[in-house]
Amino acid sequence: MILRPADQRFHSQLDWLDSWHSFNQDPNWMGFGPLRVINDDIIGAGKGFGMHSYRDMEIITVMVEGALTDADSMGNNVVLRAGEVQRMSAGSGIVHSEINQTGEPCRLLQIWIEPAQLGIQPADEQKPFAIGEGWTPLIEPDASGEAAMAIERRVRLWRAQPQRQQPLPLPAAKERLLWIQVIDRELTLNSEGSPEQSLPRGDGLGLIQDGSTQGELVSLGERADVLLFALA
Asked: Which pTM does this prediction carry?
């Protein structure tokens, strides 16, 4: 297990932005496998990021609260609302802005994953997801036509919102690396051969599988909120 406690993340704050960085701002925490960034951002009303560029990165935005307007160099101008997920393949280059045009703060998790191939054609997509008590797939390899979305990397991403004391078994995954990121409330992880691990809001935990990893998360609060990555 590799624990990234919430209060040890890099914290940056402006008058309009409160951001906690799990990776990429600390030389000891530059990523976990191909997972390079998890930023937990609260953006103030009427504020946001002006036009800025990306390339050769897979970017996933999970909207937690409120709404964010995204405009890009491909001509898209969309509103991303709570419960929706956007995936972007920056590829050979894309320019976009992210502005909270509402009268209330919004919260999102922005995730960066290294692509398997460089210089691809830029693309983006967004979908709403009804998150249940069990694992809801957000990203799946070869997900074309399915409920989940695909990115340019063999990565799986699930989200779940279990009720108090509800056991949430880790799904079977062939990928060697698992990363748990708690969005809200608190959970515990029970796994074979390891002591119980408490995971409050903002905590991250990496697991390196040996082919037989088994375990379950248990919510300590009503409707906890958690992401799980399987990374190859």
From this structure: 0.94
